[in-house]
Amino acid sequence: MKIQDFNLIEKISSKIILIKLIDVKGSSPREKDTNMCIYKNGQFGTIGGGELEYRTIKEAKKMLSEKNEINKILEFPLGPSLGQCCGGYVKVKLIKFSNGKQLMNKNKLKEELIENNKNLYIFGAGHISKAIIEKLDGTGFNVFVIDSRQKIISEINYNFVTSILAKEPKLIIKNIPSESYCLIMTHSHKIDLSICYSLLKMKDFSYIGLIGSKTKKIRFTKKLQEMGLNKNLINKIECPIGITGIKGKEPDIIAISIIARLLEFKSSLENKYKHLRLIKGSKNG
Fold this sequence. Notes:
Layout: H1 3-9, E1 16-25, E2 35-39, E3 42-45, H2 51-65, E4 71-77, E5 89-97, H3 100-106, H4 109-116, E6 118-123, H5 127-133, E7 141-147, H6 150-154, E8 161-165, H7 169-173, E9 180-184, H8 189-202, E10 205-210, H9 214-226, H10 231-234, E11 237-238, H11 251-284
């Protein structure tokens, strides 16, 4: 589910059911701990899987009309019982609550989501930044937008985004958590350069993307070297940013390309860490 979903769930005054994948084996549509909610007039989120979700929702709607049933466990061998190609196994838990506020008070869903998300800092709140921001909820990032312009930053009104007015981005950079993702797209090349320098000096980041052309990257590389930085470190900045196969100069197209690249990079990094954990586990075993 999305952060925006949780804000809406709290306002549901009728009975509502939390659906949670509590065990997953083999190939399955979603991962363990995936959640969704069902109430009389709709749903939030998805556990995926077509027939899996259809049958689970059907059981959840039965629970809404039953007085005594509060909890239920459903088990699905995805191939034999549902005729799905996945071939995995899923165990689903359904829990009924009196209203959305009770559900949120008894489950730390929003906190868990924020904890599992990666931190994304976007320096600059211009038109491309805004096009990116409006598409980010539910993609696995805690979003922070930093700009020095009061009017521009005041226009960021998404409840899943933390907007920060900062005349000196260096002060924000000093407090950025380790392994954060950073996008640099301010209104000034001078500010962009300063942010690049400060982030590279910090070194403890996952990704730095700088909006601009190959020419901009060449110029910035030269200037950053003159400022004393190693070229191998400078080369960790991606510029231009985005998926190279996606063409177009419209803000929305550029935004989709950049988000696709962030997700691609995040997935590759997660797979790398997973592989390293498996190697470490096999050595310890």
